Automatic annotation (TrEMBL):
Transmembrane segments: none annotated. Residues 43-294 form the Alginate lyase domain. It comes from the Eukaryota. It holds the Pfam family Alginate_lyase. Keywords: Lyase, Signal. The keyword Signal applies. Residues 1-19 form the signal peptide. One of its GO terms (molecular function) is lyase activity. This is Alginate lyase domain-containing protein. InterPro entries: Alginate_lyase_dom, Chondroitin_lyas. Gene3D superfamilies: Chondroitin AC/alginate lyase. It comes from Acrobeloides nanus. The keyword Lyase applies.
Length: 414
């Protein structure tokens, strides 16, 4: 693996080499929280701008009251319709945990713990009662990794006793984990399904200190077959110019950009445990981010013309149909997700690589919020957000020397 030289990186490498996980060590480490707190205390932009959005979010209030359910349904025709109860409370758990780590105010920590303690003894299942939708798989994946991140932040809080923390982990393993192990599978072959479930597995592996769960997910992401989650399938083809066409680029841009979010989450959590998926296969995730960002950006000076990106037709085996996607989709083109900060700053300000289109897309979203700031439906809770606050890094003077380069001959020039 490759890693930026720092005390934390050495710690992560040591922990992975000799067993055990870094805690907190999912999307954010203690080093990250120290940076956030320092920047917010200094009233420094853009960190403070995103933090102010967090402070104003109704879900980040210390008086937030949870709404636990015994069974949560998601999908058309599934009854009772109570999806949002879980989505709201998961987002609130994370936002309150962030406010605690940055401000040091225990009222936010107590509120985050109150939410998780309300759910852990009550929730027994998620699915689709009285219907046939499989959308609950998405909920298990997305809210699974999101909730694990909230719990990982709170795991050492003195106000969350060991018994309650263990009860929460048991709930996550009994309810979420059995569903998120369903990759590869035949019911849904779009990349975002498997990527969401893989993100949940990585997060649960760290949260519960289960190396087998974590390693199984890593191995599948790197070299798995049979589904669309592995990097070789989710990033379907790399065009000249290092532009990586995603598996859902021909479907619509709402889902294509969602894959950016999922891959960022996966790569960031792995990085914080000493594994460099960001750099895997010649920075394949960077190629995907650049391709997807470019295809969703307007040409400068235009109000309606988007950049053209290369595209090769691909066959999609999406149950229960199989069909060809022949062009870069314009459905939901220009989709804005609060999801470009971590991926941009890692490649540019950790590795010193260029990510111009990713940077332009990030600029359109900055400063961003999270759940509760992007609508009240499920799509508004597809990602945790606040990446301006959590992932922005000061610029570095220069990057490391490039390595592992691949030469591509185009028109007689490399």
């Amino acid at each position: 693996m490759a890693c930026k030289v720092s005390f934390f990186c050495i710690l992560a490498l040591f922990a992975y080499a000799f067993g055990g996980f870094v805690h907190p060590g999912l999307l954010h480490t203690q080093t990250d929280f120290n940076r956030m707190a320092q920047k917010v205390a200094a009233n420094a932009s853009p960190w403070i701008d995103s933090y102010k959005i967090l402070e104003a979010n109704w879900e980040a209030s210390a008086t937030y009251n949870p709404n636990p359910q015994s069974f949560v349904n998601r999908g058309s025709g599934c009854t009772p319709s109570n999806t949002m109860a879980l989505l709201y409370d998961v987002a609130a758990s994370y936002q309150l945990a962030l406010r605690w780590k940055i401000s040091g105010n225990n009222s936010y920590a107590d509120a985050a713990v109150r939410i998780m303690n309300a759910w852990s003894p009550k929730l027994t299942g998620i699915g689709c009662q009285n219907g046939s939708s499989h959308d609950f798989l998405l909920m298990a994946g997305m809210q699974g990794y999101q909730w694990a991140n909230a719990a990982e932040i709170m795991r050492n809080y003195s106000g969350w006793n060991t018994t309650a923390f263990n009860q929460f982990k048991t709930m996550m393993m009994n309810v979420f984990y059995p569903i998120t192990t369903q990759y590869p599978r035949g019911l849904a072959e779009y990349a975002n399904w498997e990527l969401a479930m893989l993100a949940a597995n990585l997060a649960l592996g760290v949260l519960t200190d289960n190396q087998t769960i974590f390693d199984t997910a890593i191995n599948y992401i790197q070299s798995g077959v049979g589904g669309q989650g592995p990097l070789a399938q989710s990033i379907y083809y790399v065009h000249p110019g290092n532009l990586g066409q995603g598996e859902e680029a021909g479907r619509d841009q709402g889902h294509n950009t969602l894959d950016v979010s999922h891959l960022t989450v996966i790569a960031q959590m792995a990085w914080n445990q000493g594994i460099d998926l960001y750099g895997y296969a010649n920075n394949r995730i960077l190629a995907f981010a650049e391709y997807t960002a470019k295809g969703n950006l307007l040409v400068p000076g235009s109000n309606s013309t988007y950049y053209t990106v290369p595209y090769i037709p691909m066959n999609v085996d999406a149950w229960p149909t199989e069909y060809w996607e022949n062009v870069f989709a314009n459905g939901s083109i220009g989709a804005g997700r609060p999801t470009w900060g971590c991926i941009y700053h890692h490649y540019v300000n950790v590795k010193g690589l260029a990510a111009p289109f990713t940077g332009k897309m990030l600029a359109l979203q900055t400063p961003e919020g999270g759940g509760g700031n992007y609508g009240s439906n499920t799509g508004g809770y597809d990602q945790l957000g606040y990446e301006t606050l959590t992932c922005t890094l000061d610029p570095i003077s220069k990057g490391s020397a490039p390595s592992g380069l691949t030469a591509v001959l185009v028109g007689g020039s490399v």
